[in-house]
Design brief:
A hairpin with a 2-residue loop joins strand 26 and strand 27. The protein is mainly beta and about 375 residues long. About 5% of the residues lie in helices and about 55% in strands. The two termini are about 25 Å apart.
């Protein structure tokens, strides 16, 4: 399997052996342990890794998938994609090791078909945080840099015009860094956070916004936002939901839209409308949900069911419907993207065997 690179550029020769070796491992273990359900393709193992690695997924302008994941039992971060190589008309999956340290919680964004990844690095002995780091192939080769030193966790990234915008949790505060400001940290909220944030941007409004659970990890509060103009200035705050919230994912189109886990209630969808936040109940599922937009204006949401498999929910303007995506009892951490009108769901499968890892299934 040849190594591949975003933007149809071949990988440097120094990366080639790592990419080929990792890809061969994934192929050798590609017997599917996650089970198919009606309306969805048989899930395919794309990255063989134990212990349910955290992953982040995005789709580029050509419709190719890009996934960055923790190594699980292996060190570092790993890059998984089906983007084709230069001169190769047939996309096929490959795996490439990006880092070889104690790196965790990656967040991935794509701008002009280049990947931008923010992650937290830990001390290999104590596992204490060594701050927020980044890796990108913006200039044609992968470059790893430290961007903020501190007890930092749970980064979330968006990229615009080749610039980085990252929110993260530091103790009881929500912080923000960007290369636009010389990587100087700003405080979005000094008395939070109950979980990871989700940072987004609305092009038409020229606004950045981070959604985050308030409170603390031991005592979560409601779901809030911190927003400001891309030109700078003060951050304004708003409350999406007053009930304690465990996690949130979001996107912006015309307005900010989020799905979140309301503790004790289930998964909800909310959108900004006339300075209010009307909400729709999605399911009684918990865990971090994810959402993606269809071209016709409908929305797809994925959640983890209490039985241990993945559920898909289609949100139409006046209707809601559900589909079971997988039938295994060992599936979790789903993400969703939409390519050519069909959803792809990326998720972890972990039952303690050689089939553990990150899988991808397609809506039929």
């Amino acid at each position: 399997m040849s190594s591949r690179f975003l933007g149809s550029r071949r990988l440097p020769a120094s990366r080639l052996a790592v990419a080929i070796g990792a890809a061969t491992l994934a192929i050798a273990l590609a017997a599917s342990s996650a089970l198919a359900t009606p309306g969805w393709s048989t899930p395919k193992l794309r990255f063989a890794a134990r212990f349910g690695p955290v992953h982040s997924t995005a789709v580029d302008s050509q419709g190719y998938l890009h996934i960055v994941a923790e190594g699980g039992a292996a060190p570092g971060l790993w890059y998984i994609s089906n983007a084709p190589a230069d001169g190769d008309p047939t996309p096929s999956w490959f795996v490439l090791q990006l880092t070889n340290k104690e790196d965790h919680n990656p967040s991935l964004a794509i701008f002009e078909d280049r990947i931008y990844v923010a992650f937290e690095r830990h001390d290999p002995g104590t596992l204490a945080s060594k701050g927020i780091w980044t890796v990108t192939n913006k200039t044609g080769t992968f470059v790893v840099k430290n961007r903020h030193l501190g007890n930092d966790h749970d980064p979330s990234i968006t990229a615009k015009d080749g610039d980085w915008h990252v929110s993260f949790r530091q103790g009881s505060a929500l912080k923000y860094i960007s290369n636009v400001g010389g990587w100087a940290a700003e405080t979005l909220d000094g008395t939070c956070c109950g979980g990871p944030s989700a940072i987004m941007m609305a092009d038409d409004l020229l606004t950045f916004c981070a959604a985050y659970p308030d409170g603390s990890p031991s005592s979560p509060g409601g779901l809030r936002t911190a927003c400001r103009s891309t030109g700078g200035g003060a951050w304004s705050h708003d409350t999406i939901d007053g009930h304690p919230t465990a996690s949130v994912s979001g996107v912006w189109t015309d307005v900010i839209r989020v799905v979140f886990d309301r503790i004790g209630w289930g998964t909800y969808y909310a959108r900004m409308q006339n300075a209010a936040w009307p909400k729709r109940f999605i399911s009684d599922d918990h865990g971090r949900p994810d959402l993606a937009r269809y071209a016709n204006g409908n929305w797809g949401v994925v959640t983890t069911r209490s039985s241990g498999n993945i559920r898909f929910t289609l949100l139409e303007p006046t209707a809601i419907s559900h589909q079971q995506v997988t039938s295994s009892m060992s599936d979790f951490a789903p993400e969703i993207v939409v390519v050519n009108g069909k959803a792809r769901v990326i998720f972890n499968h972990a039952e303690g065997g050689t089939g553990d890892g990150i899988y991808v299934t397609k809506q039929l």
